[in-house]
Write a structure and sequence with these properties.
Order of helices and strands: EHEHHEEH
GO molecular function: DNA binding
InterPro entries: Arsenical-R_ArsD (IPR010712)
CATH architecture: 3-Layer(aba) Sandwich
CATH class: Alpha Beta
Number of domains: 1
GO biological process, one term: negative regulation of DNA-templated transcription
Strand order of the largest sheet: 2-1-3-4
Protein name: Arsenical resistance operon trans-acting repressor ArsD
Pfam family, one: ArsD
Number of strands: 4
Amino acid sequence: MSKVQIFDKPLCCSTGVCGPQVDPVLPQFASDLEWLKSQGHDVQRFNLAQEPQAFTANSQVQKLLADEGVDCLPLILIDDRLVSRSDYPSRDNLALWTGTELKKASLPVATDGDCCGGTGCC
């Protein structure tokens, strides 16, 4: 399984889904990370406001911050390889980068041939 590291901008909490104005991308990304964990991946998420030592301990992250500032965040590393910067990736991309099968939910198909499914309720 892959080691997935997320280096976030300074956030109010570990997921960023608190406070009066929540970026709508953050709850979905937090859910996607939980999904990755459930698939057996080692997911590590670091918040610059709460864990600055993690940023300085990684030379690749430290160099990007020195060269570009916090605008390069979030950084996503998979097995120590930079795969994304400045944006939160989709679950599809996380699955692709980690080699994880992404099962799509399927909806049942009506077989009666009409929109009401034969109930006559429409």
